[in-house]
Design a protein that fits this description.
This protein is mainly β. It contains one helix and 14 strands. The N terminus is likely disordered.
Length: 181
């Protein structure tokens, strides 16, 4: 499982995903950073990374073929789907767990989609979080680069965000802080 803890305004997963949100204050000095990350990652690792059911789609046409950004209605999972190296359409997918958000020292999943609408460069959706809703956008910012952005936290005091994606032992995600030595 590869994962990333997001504590700044925007993070780019090379040719895969940008997670963006309002700037967050750094983690409290009294809490060891590793303990906070371990808690989020163990929670994310327990999530199923094979989403089922209906999803909303934003498409992007690239030199390699059609690429789709997907957000699953019932779970909040995110996927980037495109052609494989042989050129087979929509044969390769990278799926991310629903983003985890730390509020008041506790981790919570962004949940199901409540509503959605098309915007000029993608879609805007209302997504459930705790007892309220947040507004998110799913767009492409460049060829094959998907952006998932929370544009309205509804006043929630968000401290950190974590995302996770599954991979086999030989696969590496650029930007996840892995060591290659």
């Amino acid at each position: 499982m590869n994962r990333l803890l997001v504590t700044r305004s925007a993070v780019c997963f090379w040719a895969a995903l940008i997670v963006s949100a309002a700037a967050f204050p750094p983690a409290r000095a009294a809490e060891p950073e590793g303990a906070s990350q371990a808690d989020a990652f163990s929670r994310a690792a327990g999530q199923v990374l094979s989403p089922q059911g209906a999803y909303l789609t934003v498409t992007n046409f690239t030199a390699a073929g059609l690429v789709e950004a997907r957000i699953y209605r019932n779970s909040g999972h995110l996927s980037l789907v495109g052609p494989d190296l042989a050129g087979n359409a929509l044969a390769n997918a990278v799926t991310f767990s629903p983003p985890l958000v730390r509020i008041g020292g506790q981790w919570h999943n962004l949940g199901p989609i409540v509503s959605s609408r098309t915007i000029g460069d993608g879609l805007e959706a209302v997504q459930q979080l705790l007892t309220t809703n947040v507004v998110v956008r799913l767009t492409f910012v460049a060829e094959g680069v998907m952006r998932y952005e929370v544009v309205n936290w509804s006043g929630l005091p968000v401290e950190e965000i974590a995302v996770a994606a599954a991979s086999d032992a030989g696969e590496h995600f650029y930007g996840f802080g892995e060591k290659f030595n």
